[in-house]
Write a structure and sequence with these properties.
single chain; mainly beta; 5-stranded mixed sheet; 21 strands; 49% strand
C-alpha cells in the first residue's frame, strides 16, 4: 500500500478529458515497470448575475455583479450593439458575500451627449481557462427626470395637531385652504431648459361663484391675476450634483369649490397639479393628484373682542 498523493489541477485547464499517469518501478529490478492511466474530467462551472443602477445622462452609474468562485475576470459591455458601446472592467468588491461567490463592482460616467432610450448591457465572467458566462441586463437611459415633487402650504393647518377647540386634526400635508399660499418644489436631473406648472382648472380659476350666487375675483383679493402655466424658478441652493437642480414656485390658491368640508365630509374628488420639465424637444412630467381644499383662510382667523 502506498500513501495517497494529492495535487491541484491548474486553473488554466480547459474543460475536457484528462489522465493521470501512474508508474510503478521495481526496487530490485528498476527496469521493470508497470504503467496505469487514471482518467478524470475537468468541468469548471461559471456563472454571473449582473445589475445596473438607474441611468441618467451626465451622471455616474453603478455596476455590480455576483459570480461563483471560479470567475477570475468580469467585464460589462454597456449600450451593447450601439455606437455608444463601452467596455468596463469590474473589480472585486471590498466586502465579499461568501466563499462560494464573488462580488464585483464598477462605476461609469455616462457622457452628456448620450441619447435617451432603452438599452441592453452584457455582463461577462471568465475563468482562467477562458470559459465564460454572460448575463443580459436591460435598462433605460433617461436624459431628463423629475426625481421628486412636493407641495407645501404656508398655513399647513392639517398637520396632526390639536386645534384651539380641542379637536385632533388629521395629518394631511396636501390639504389646503382657499387663499393659502403654497410652495411647489421639484428636483430635476438633466439640466432642463424650463419647468412649467399647471393645476386642475378649479385651482387656476381667477373667478369663482359660490352656491348662493356670490361672485369673487382673484384680482380683488390679491391685486393681480395669474396666468398659466406657471414658470418655476431654479434655486441657487447647492444640490451636490451639477446635473441635479432644484426648482420652486409660490402660488396663492384661489377661492374654489371645497373637496372636504370642515366636518370631514367628502364634497368632490381632489384637485391635482402637473409639473413638466422641458429640454429641447423632450418633456418629462410628474403629477400630484390628491390636493384637497377646505374653506378659506378667513374661516380660521379669530379676532379677540374688546370690551368697554
Amino acid at each position: 500500500n502506498w500513501s495517497d498523493a494529492q495535487f491541484t489541477t491548474s486553473s488554466t485547464l480547459v474543460d475536457g478529458d484528462y489522465r493521470v499517469k501512474v508508474v510503478a518501478t521495481s526496487l530490485l529490478t528498476p527496469s521493470i515497470t508497470e504503467t496505469l492511466y487514471l482518467p478524470f474530467k475537468i468541468n469548471t462551472p461559471i456563472s454571473i448575475a449582473g445589475e445596473i443602477a438607474d441611468m441618467m445622462v451626465g451622471e455616474t452609474v453603478s455596476l455590480s455583479a455576483i459570480t461563483n468562485q471560479y470567475a477570475k475576470v468580469v467585464t460589462a459591455t454597456l449600450f451593447n450593439g450601439t455606437s455608444q458601446s463601452k467596455n468596463i472592467s469590474l473589480a472585486k468588491s471590498p466586502s465579499q458575500p461568501s466563499a462560494e461567490s464573488i462580488a464585483w463592482e464598477a462605476a461609469y460616467l455616462i457622457p452628456a451627449d448620450s441619447p435617451e432610450g432603452d438599452y441592453t448591457h452584457v455582463f461577462t465572467a471568465w475563468t482562467d481557462s477562458g470559459k465564460s458566462a454572460t448575463d443580459l441586463v436591460a435598462n433605460r437611459l433617461d436624459a431628463l427626470a423629475i426625481t421628486s415633487l412636493e407641495i407645501k402650504g404656508y398655513w399647513n393647518h392639517w398637520r396632526g395637531q390639536t386645534d384651539a377647540f380641542g379637536t385632533v386634526l388629521a395629518n394631511q400635508p396636501h390639504r389646503f385652504l382657499s387663499y393659502e399660499k403654497v410652495c411647489i418644489t421639484a428636483m430635476v436631473l438633466g439640466n432642463p431648459d424650463e419647468i412649467t406648472l399647471r393645476f386642475s382648472p378649479g385651482l387656476e380659476a381667477m373667478h369663482y361663484t359660490n352656491a348662493i350666487g356670490q361672485h369673487y375675483r382673484y384680482v380683488d383679493e390679491m391685486g393681480y391675476e395669474v396666468t398659466f402655466p406657471l414658470k418655476m424658478v431654479q434655486s441657487a441652493e447647492a444640490t451636490g450634483s451639477p446635473n441635479l437642480s432644484k426648482w420652486t414656485v409660490d402660488y396663492i390658491l384661489p377661492l374654489c369649490k371645497e373637496t372636504i368640508s370642515f366636518e370631514e365630509v367628502r364634497r368632490s374628488v381632489p384637485y391635482g397639479l402637473t409639473v413638466s420639465a422641458i429640454k429641447g424637444s423632450l418633456t418629462k412630467s410628474e403629477t400630484i393628484d390628491d390636493i384637497d381644499m377646505t374653506g378659506n383662510i378667513y374661516d380660521l382667523l379669530y379676532v379677540q373682542p374688546s370690551y368697554k
